[in-house]
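Pinned message: reference record for M67 family metallopeptidase
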Amino acid sequence: MIRLPKHLYGEMLEAAKVGNPEEICGLIGGIKEGDIREVKEIYLLENIDHSKEHFSMSPKDQLEAVKDMRRKGLVPLGNFHSHPESPSRPSEEDKRLAYDKEASYLILSIMNIEEPVLKAFRISEQVSREEKIEYI
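Predicted structure (tokens):
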């Protein structure tokens, strides 16, 4: 289960709206307690592809985010990105590029901007399994 502070969800949503029509992306850092992952920080990173259909994060920016997590005693939990024109589910490309079966992949659909949908997934061998999100 993912525990996500409402204010961090708000930051993701605002970034997705501002970045629309491109996908926005970033990393999430926090703490793990058994099967519970509590998000403490989000790191909005530039989508260097500047695309509405996929994203790539700068390796340098990713490294800086991970260094910041370590300084704060946090661990990388996964990443997030928006889907401006599609539902909140992993695309075939998302599944193919999912490199870490322990990571949480959060996808925020804003195809209906009035009713955004955030879902979390674990992806292993191109098979996705939805994780519950608890807003705190």
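Pinned by admin. Summary line: The mean pLDDT is 94.
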